[in-house]
Amino acid sequence: MIKIAIVDDNSFLIKAAQEKLSFFDDFSIKITAINGLMFWKTRKKSQHRFDFNGY
């Protein structure tokens, strides 16, 4: 299982990525956020460990 966090200021892009990834059983979206600060706050409350790879 690959756990994913999606962070983007475009909520349409987040929803589209969630929809596309929902077809794959190997992916699990654990966190979505509209900015980095929201992600960091949510991540601190989360039990999941994240390896960062982004643009």
Helices and strands, with pairings:
Blueprint: E1 2-7, H1 11-21, E2 27-33, H2 36-45
Parallel strand pairs: 1-2
Structural account:
This protein is an alpha+beta fold and 55 residues long. The protein is built from 2 helices and 2 strands; from the N terminus they run E-H-E-H. Strands 1-2 form a two-stranded parallel ribbon. It is globular.
Brief characterization of the structure:
This protein has 55 residues and is α+β, with helices and mostly antiparallel strands. It has 2 helices and 2 strands.
Structural class, by secondary structure, is alpha+beta
Strand content: 15-25%
* Helix-residue proportion: 25-40%
The rough form would be described as globular
Spatially, the strands of the biggest sheet line up as: 1-2
End-to-end separation in angstroms reads 23 Å
Which ranges are low-confidence, i.e. pLDDT below 50, for 5 or more consecutive residues? none
Our Rg estimate from Cα atoms comes to 11 Å
